[in-house]
Write a structure and sequence with these properties.
The structure holds 2 protein chains of 2 kinds. Chain A is of the alpha/beta class. Chain A is built from 12 helices and 23 strands. Classes of the chains: A alpha/beta, B mainly alpha.
């Protein structure tokens, strides 16, 4: 029997980036907030310190900051005819755990989506005809526009101290920034990072081909910066360990370094760690979630935490799983196309390439993911898709920095995978490799979805979430097209040798590809096409707000974090302006 | 007002440490923003407090867990050792765990030291 606790104004399920952002915004408005986090607390002065933070074995190979698969995982299969098996060790994607969540180990790729991304279904129909979209491509317009989100993108920039250069300031195009981006209200809070040597070469080659290179926007401060919450931040030190670690320099945006220092001492906020929420307590008649049930993972005791507002701020999988196991909304059925919870699961379709330059020394041990140069000429609807046989696209990025001692050992194709010859080749090429990546979109397909697994259970006895996913013909064609552009750029750089690595036909859960899982609790204009409305409020429970990339109708050709952050601030603003005064649906069904 | 403050501060610096006659503590204070994300007076600060650091022995504070190289360095933080350390932290104390690559500009270093001298 669960112990019933005193009601609070709001409870956060998951204290990752969005949980911390919402808790901070709510407490600033006077609400009493409890933050429930299934993992441990993470404090920069204990964890984000040298030399341990540069321990590649610990954090990159042994993925210390990630969810414990022995407690909870997901089951996976490629198609609905197969039997899914549980993922016993994360690899293709890495959901995080503990305060700060998955954002603790983001690479800092800090993007906004294109204005056309938000109305992609309409744009494709307008440009290529009403029947252009294949029947199995279930893409939708977002119920919110770029212009509506812009001020919240800006606020997120200023919480992160993001580094970059604007390419479109209030409609004025600026050479050297991303001229394809939507109009920004303000410049980035800090200037772009210095470019790695390989990035400079990539930019030169891209420009010679008529493309528009610009420095990659980065979710870390390049100079000392004080964020919107008054937290003093350091500057990026180009250590290069961002991708699986927290930041040693208090520069890369994360909840522990950018929000928790000011949230922690707030008497209106209480953090409970090792608190694993197993269920939303749902009142179907009232269309409300009255509270949440959680287990203290240290004692095994169960608690009920009643709350006026429930913020579901777990990872994409946790959000969808929670709705499915709590009986909120109708589960998606791919055979009939009916039901919405679990629908439009999307991923990121990345295909890399590496070029080797015998006579260059690129000092790859210095750097950060933000030291890259990017072209956005082949993203979304930035280019004409007539006759190409696919929709979507992605940015192309190249650079040479941040190659860690274990993982950063690119060798040319044909090199043995081990032994003395391999050793010789890694020494020979370590300084001489430039890496490229294509950040391909995934446009929703009716066969890719999330539901409940019939066989396997987690440590709390709940059935696992099941992911059914495979790359579609559309996304493969998109990816091959992007790689032809990478090929042209690499050729213009005149390398000694190079290797393109197109995606294998079938998606596999190894090796690492991208943690950009999206969808499952998609947002939309009505209960007939979505799980939540434009303010991230569940149609079936008016006091339930869902954060994160599970709200995306599909995944454009960018990293999702910028939009995740903007949506959270957009929802927080509406909740505090309107919902707390008059609780109820913010959009009439 | 700002200029008054600046010259008052500079005067104070010159009294304490006459050799840094050209250093601008006020400018040093601005540059110190790069240090301040870690070097605060808070319990959970990432770096040790720098209050009174000038003239102090290295690794002197009981409440901060210094790296072994810093403990072994046996330095006194005078103007010269600070200058060498801030110019190239890893060069001066190899293996110390301050994640800062140093200040390349000698004037910047002098100004930061001038500011450090005001921290009491």
């Amino acid at each position: 029997m669960a112990t019933k606790l005193k009601e609070v104004d709001a409870v956060m399920i998951g204290m990752g980036m969005t949980g911390a952002m919402m808790a901070k915004e709510f407490t600033m408005a006077g609400l009493r907030v409890v933050g429930l986090e299934r993992g441990p607390d993470r404090r920069p002065h204990e964890e984000s310190i040298l030399p341990r933070i540069r321990d590649e074995l610990r954090y990159v190979q042994r993925i210390e900051l990630m969810q414990d698969n022995s407690v909870d995982t997901i089951a996976f299969r490629n198609s609905s005819g197969q039997t899914a098996l549980p993922i016993r060790r994360w690899s293709a994607f890495l959901p995080g755990e503990g305060v700060g969540g998955t954002l603790n180990h983001w690479g800092g790729m800090h993007w906004r989506y294109l204005p056309t991304d938000f109305r992609i279904r309409s744009v494709i129909r307008e440009r290529y005809g009403a029947s252009a979209i294949p029947p199995d491509m279930t893409i939708e317009d977002w119920p919110v526009t770029y212009d509506e989100l812009e001020p919240y993108y800006d606020r997120f920039d200023k919480m992160c101290g993001a580094a970059g250069k604007a390419g479109n300031l209030k409609g004025r195009k600026i050479d050297g920034g991303n001229v394809f981006e939507g109009p920004r209200g303000d410049e980035y809070p800090t200037p772009p990072l210095k470019s790695s040597a390989g990035a400079v070469l990539m930019a030169e080659a891209s420009r010679s081909l008529g493309f528009h290179p610009f420095p990659s926007p980065f979710g870390a401060s390049s100079t000392p910066y004080t964020n919107i919450y008054g937290v003093q931040l350091g500057r990026c030190e180009y250590c290069g360990f961002c991708g699986r670690n927290t930041c040693e320099a208090n520069a890369k945006a994360s909840a522990p370094s950018h929000i928790m220092p000011v949230l922690r001492g707030d008497p209106r906020f209480e953090l409970r760690t090792h608190a694993f929420v197993s269920k939303l307590i749902y009142d179907r008649q009232a269309k409300k979630v009255t509270g949440v049930l959680y287990t203290d993972m240290k004692t095994g005791e169960e608690y009920e935490q009643p709350a006026n507002i429930v913020v579901l701020s777990a990872y994409v999988f946790g959000n969808t799983h929670m709705l499915l196991t709590s009986g909120i909304g109708q589960p998606y059925d791919p055979r009939t196309g009916r039901g919405l919870v679990g629908k439009n699961y999307c991923y990121q379709f990345e295909a890399p390439a590496t070029a080797f330059f015998e006579n260059r020394n690129l000092n790859p041990f210095i750097g950060a993911p933000g030291d890259r140069m990017v072209i956005d000429d082949f993203n979304g609807e930035n280019f004409d898709h007539s006759g190409l046989g696919f929709f979507g696209g992605g940015y192309i990025v190249g650079g040479s920095g941040a190659a860690p001692p274990i993982g950063g050992r690119d060798v040319p194709p044909g090199t043995p995978a081990w032994g003395s010859q391999w050793k010789k080749e890694t020494v020979r090429w370590y300084y001489r490799a430039i890496e490229f990546n294509t950040q391909g979109s995934v446009y929703a397909n009716r066969a890719n979805y999330l539901d409940i697994d019939p066989t396997y259970k987690d440590s709390l006895g709940r059935p696992l979430l099941r992911l059914t996913y495979n790359g579609t013909d559309n996304d493969h064609a998109m990816s091959r097209y992007l790689l032809t552009k990478v090929d042209a750029i690499i050729k213009a750089m005149n390398p000694t040798t190079y290797e393109m690595r197109p995606r294998p036909r079938n998606f596999t859960i190894v090796p690492y590809q991208s943690t950009h899982n999206t969808g499952g609790t998609m947002m939309g204009t009505s209960p007939g096409n979505s799980v939540i409305n434009r303010y991230l409020q569940a149609w079936d429970a008016s006091n339930l707000f869902i954060m994160g990339a599970s709200t995306f109708p599909q995944q454009p050709g960018y990293n999702p974090t910028g939009t995740v952050g903007a949506l959270a601030y957009w929802a927080a603003d509406k909740i505090l302006k309107d919902y707390v005064k008059r609780p109820g649906p913010l959009v009439q069904a | 007002m700002r200029r008054l403050y600046s010259s008052a501060l500079l005067g104070a610096v010159m009294l304490v440490a006459s050799p840094v006659f050209a250093a601008d503590a006020n400018r040093g204070k601005t540059l110190y923003a790069a240090c301040q994300a870690c070097h605060t007076e808070k319990d959970d600060a990432l770096g040790p407090s720098l209050k009174g650091v000038v003239g102090r022995k290295s690794a002197a504070l009981d409440n901060f867990r210094y790296s072994a190289p810093m403990k072994r360095s046996n330095l006194t933080w005078d103007e010269r050792s600070l200058r060498e350390y801030l110019t190239d932290p890893q060069g001066k104390v190899k293996g110390n765990r301050m994640p800062f690559s140093g200040l390349a500009n000698a004037t910047d270093v002098a100004d930061v030291i001038a500011y450090l001298q005001t921290l009491k």
